[in-house]
Amino acid sequence: MGQGLEQSCVFAEGQYTDPGGVAIELEKPDGFNAEGLLGLPEVVSAEVHEAVIRVGLHDLTAGAPAILRWLAENGHGYQHVTSERPDLETVFLTLTGRSLRDA
Questions:
Q1: Range of the structural domain that residue 68 is part of
Q2: What is the DSSP letter of 12?
Q3: How far is Cα 66 from Cα 84, in angstroms, rounded to an integer?
Q4: pLDDT digits (tens, 9 = 90+) for 2-56
Q5: By three-state DSSP, how is residue 35 classified?
Q6: What is the DSSP annotation of 60-81?
Q7: CA distance 79 to 25
Q8: Beta bridge partners of 84
Q9: What is the CATH classification number for the domain harbouring 59?
Q10: Stated pTM of the model
Q11: What CA–CA distance (Å, rounded) separates 3 from 19?
């Protein structure tokens, strides 16, 4: 493993790196826009589903504190934070655009 939760997988066409990330449960998700997080240097992706933000990161160690600081500075409280590591299904979907069941 590399730094943070970075996971590398070697495929026939080269190396693929999926960074993993964090899931953050917001106290009040009303009107939250994840696009503001995309300006942070470590953030790869950000999406909101109901009260949970899922953020993909280049480096969990540097990115998670920056996200939590950004949320606090912008008035967004949160209740729960967990780190996430991509599984084989996520890596396959990212590379091919299809789930394993569709293959």
A1: 7-97
A2: T
A3: 17
A4: 333 333 333 333 444 445 788 888 888 887 888 889 999 988 888 888 888 888 8
A5: helix
A6: HHHHHHHHHHHHHHTT--EEEE
A7: 6
A8: 21
A9: 3.30.70
A10: 0.64
A11: 10
